[in-house]
Amino acid sequence: MDLTPFIRDVPDFPKPGIIFKDITPLLGNAKAFTYAVEAIAKAHTGKGITKVVGIESRGFILAPPVALALGVGFVPIRKPGKLPWKAIREGYNLEYGNDAVEIHEDSVTDKDVVLMIDDVLATGGTMEAAIKLVRRVGGTVIGTAFLIDLAFLGGGTRINSPVFSVMRYT
């Protein structure tokens, strides 16, 4: 299925010069959304995954249905101060600033095989920080999955893990 018609370009968001890839039209179409989730799940079936980690905020939309399709649990990685339990933090640089992410220190163990999910791979900073968090709490990251890979930004070269994407912009 060609998902291109379901991705909207938003110029100058969140700041001038950035062309934001808006996935909300895709999420609003049941067939397109189902196709994307099934593509990610199918590509990772049979790999021994025990947890799917989704990164706030749009990773939260994709990761839970993939986790359910794989029959495993979902773990959120959130912005600082949003998790109610003991958490560890990792800072990173964005293409338009700095940020940090956190994970509950007991949400992943050394017995877990983890698939990391976010909506868009741009420069790779967010995913790189998220992978560091999962590895710090003992998880084995076997891959990353994205709805969109903005390959022209080179984020995949920054991530020390295999990259799967449903869509790729070169």
Model description:
With 170 residues, the chain is an alpha/beta fold. The protein has a single domain, classed as 3-Layer(aba) Sandwich (Rossmann fold). 28% of the residues lie in helices and 36% in strands. The chain is built from five helices and nine strands. The chain has helices at residues 24-27, 30-44, 59-70, 125-136, 155-158; strands at 8-11, 19-22, 51-55, 73-77, 87-94, 97-104, 113-121, 140-150, 163-169. The strands form three sheets. Strands 4-3-7-8-9 form a five-stranded parallel sheet, sandwiched between helices. It has a two-stranded antiparallel sheet with strand order 1-2. Helix 2 crosses helix 3 (59-70). The radius of gyration is 15 Å and the shape is globular. The two termini are 19 Å apart.
Topology, element by element:
Elements: E1 8-11, E2 19-22, H1 24-27, H2 30-44, E3 51-55, H3 59-70, E4 73-77, E5 87-94, E6 97-104, E7 113-121, H4 125-136, E8 140-150, H5 155-158, E9 163-169
Parallel strand pairs: 3-4, 3-7, 7-8, 8-9
Antiparallel strand pairs: 1-2, 5-6
